[in-house]
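Following up on my earlier message about glutathione. Here are the inputs again, as you asked, copied directly from the submission form:
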Amino acid sequence: MESEGPISLNNKVFDPKMVNHSITFYHYPLSPPSRAALLVVRTLGIKHDLKIVDIFNGEQHSPAYLKINPFHTVPTVDDGGFYLYDSCVIMKYLSKQYAKDDSLFPKEPRKAALVGLRMYFGSNYLFPALRDYFAPVFFENVQPSTEKAKKFEERLQQLNDFLENETWVAGKDLTIADFCIVSIVSTAEAIMFHVNKYPNVSTWYKRAKEAMAPFGYEEIMQDGSDKFGNAFKEKLK
Ligand SMILES: N[C@@H](CCC(=O)N[C@@H](CS)C(=O)NCC(=O)O)C(=O)O
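Thanks, got it. Here's what our run produced:
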């Protein structure tokens, strides 16, 4: 699969009317969904003003932030007074609104549905299983639970099954679903899950890192995951 050649992506400001257009992206580098959406912003070449919301220090509960995102989460996007939260919603909107073609989020209904299905898996199953594992360690000062680790590993196995004979998580092309899932897998790896035990996940993960490298994978995804991993390790006895 590695010999397929370069993947064509939308990494330039493509539409002249976009040259002076900028969005505001509210971000926290340790947050996996925030990293996924930010890397899509970079991949699409959308100009953006980055605002860090330190969720470990409660900045997401400020009245000003709650006004634009009553769910007090990162990421949030402000596109000229149009406010959006939830990374999946953001990634879909930005792709539809600003991508020069539909490669990252296909228009064809069944392909789009498959992308949605994998993002649904990421945001409702894979990420919650990981959060159930790490959140008590961060916020309740308890040690990691082997039972919760097992539950997350069951989801990794499911991801491995989805990737059987597939190049990307939603089929033959790299899509926003890969950004969603890679943010979770890289975070899991940083907190010592052996993601390479799952052969399809391992091959896909390497491929995803290579494809996303030109758009800032190292700076946005790897660096955020490493920081997350270090913060987690500090909590271990
Ligand atoms: N489904 C949401 C989840 C976002 C989310 O849970 N963000 C967490 C960080 S990973 C957050 O901002 N937590 C702060 C809070 O809930 O107050 C998305 O994909 O954007």
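One observation from looking it over: The first strand starts at residue 23 and ends at 27. Hope that helps, and feel free to reply on this thread.
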